[in-house]
Automatic annotation (TrEMBL):
Top-level lineage group: Eukaryota
Protein name: EF-hand domain-containing protein
MF annotations from Gene Ontology: calcium ion binding
Residues in EF-hand domain copies: 43-78
InterPro entries with a match to the protein in the record: EF-hand-dom_pair (IPR011992), EF_Hand_1_Ca_BS (IPR018247), EF_hand_dom (IPR002048)
Coiled-coil annotated residue ranges, if any: none
Key words, A-Z: Calcium
Length: 156
């Protein structure tokens, strides 16, 4: 992760759920991480498990402070809004979005500058949103993070 400094807010929230016997590793075991996600982000347990699995980058069944910081920076306190948006697009409830559904939502999303995406950008983001034309909730969260960080090249 590029930014290794952890905000006080993120650190305090993480430590609120950390048991003292886990302190040396600065990791939350899965059950404590799920509790943090359900209590603080107001999401249900099944969605918390999906999000935990997505952000447990090293796959060790625990969430490190750095993994939590990444989660917080990507979805922050608006996690439920992201889930609600994803579920409203996944109207057929297949558990994934098609490339066409992703393109449709991208036409309504804006960059951090407030600008709309152009057709080439929509195509690029839609093609890279998932695998084999399927965008899962985790992929969608990544897509939103990439949009947040995307800097459009200066146009000539």
């Amino acid at each position: 992760m590029a930014n290794r400094r952890v905000s006080q807010q993120v650190q305090e929230l993480f430590e609120k759920y950390m048991q003292t016997d886990h302190a040396p590793g600065r990791r939350l075991p899965v059950h404590d991480a799920i509790k943090l996600l359900t209590n603080e982000f107001k999401i249900n347990e099944s969605k918390a498990q999906i999000i935990f699995a997505h952000f447990d980058k090293d796959g060790n069944g625990a969430m490190s402070l750095w993994e939590f910081q990444h989660l917080y920076n990507v979805v922050g306190p608006n996690c439920q809004e992201t889930i609600d948006l994803y579920e409203s697009i996944d109207s057929d409830k297949k558990g994934y979005l098609t490339t066409e559904q992703v393109k449709e939502v991208l036409t309504k999303m804006t960059l951090s500058t407030g600008e709309n995406l152009d057709a080439k950008e929509i195509e690029m983001f839609a093609k890279t949103a998932g695998t084999e034309g399927k965008t899962t909730l985790g992929d969608f969260i990544d897509l939103k993070a990439r949009l947040k960080m995307f800097k459009r090249p200066k146009r000539k």
